[in-house]
Design goal:
Layout (H helix, E strand, L loop, with lengths): L10 E3 L8 H11 L3 E6 L2 E7 H9 L15 E2 L3 E3 L4 H11 L3 E5 L5 E6 H29 L1
Parallel strand pairs: 1-2, 5-6
Antiparallel strand pairs: 2-3, 3-4, 6-7
Length: 146
Amino acid sequence: MPRQLIRRKEVYDVRGTILITVEAAAACMATEKVGALVVVEDRKPVGIVTDRDLVVRAVAKHLSPHQTAVHAVMTPRPICVTEGTPLEGAMECMKFYRLRRLVVLNEAQEVVGVMTLDDLLALLVEERQALAAITEVMGATRHERL
């Protein structure tokens, strides 16, 4: 998996406590400009909380953001891939589970970051543009030989 697809700023260590609030998570998302945070304990994923989770599971239910723990609104046991997972495998996982984000783990099963659908699409667009440029150059070279 290309390293540029693993975003590390979306990892949020709860340091073994359930006292991290929805308000703190939302503030962290705003500061880091991300739409999700991986909730970890001892670098192991215990959940993922998205901006949608905050809206649907907290705001829409009129829960107090400064009193509600992230654990109450997160999705537990997030779907994960390893750093060595081929892109095709990660895309199949996203498709099968209908996900926009995958938690990325190292060999020790510790969180190293997140791979997002947006980042994956940007990479695919770049690769397609590079292939088009190569094809264009090859076509021009071929015409010159004729």
